[in-house]
Amino acid sequence: MKGRFVFPAATGYGKHLYSAMGLPEGKRALLETAFMSLLDDQAAKALDILRDPHAPGIPIPLRHAAARFVVSLLLRTPEEIERIKKHYLEKWLKGACLAVT
């Protein structure tokens, strides 16, 4: 990793990581706004309950949300997101993906 620094605040970080640069301005962050933010929000709710010493327990739907979040971390690395983007770009160019409207 010559020339790159790795530190906790930037681990797994990539500028515009979820942006689809080929889409119109208002659609570029669609993956972040339509999917990732919902995933993160539900996991944050579960974490809030975990931090509350008086909480009676985490409801099953939030347990599932927390598990989905943890599993998503395996796929949310800059390298993996780039691989996924490349895969779907190839499918798009072959006409195998639907257009974003």
Describe the fold and architecture.
The model has no long low-confidence stretch (mean pLDDT 80). The radius of gyration is 17 Å and the shape is elongated. The protein is mainly α and 101 residues long. The chain is built from three helices and no strands.
Largest β sheet strand count, sense and barrel closure: none
Please tell me what the overall shape is.
elongated
Radius of gyration: 17 Å
Helix content: 40-55%
As a percent range, the share of strand residues is: under 5%
User: Helical segment tally?
Assistant: 3
Class inferred from helices and paired strands: mainly alpha
Quick description:
By secondary structure, the chain is mostly helical.
What descriptive keywords fit this protein?
mainly alpha; 101 residues; elongated
List the helices and strands and how they pair.
Layout: H1 30-51, H2 60-75, H3 78-93
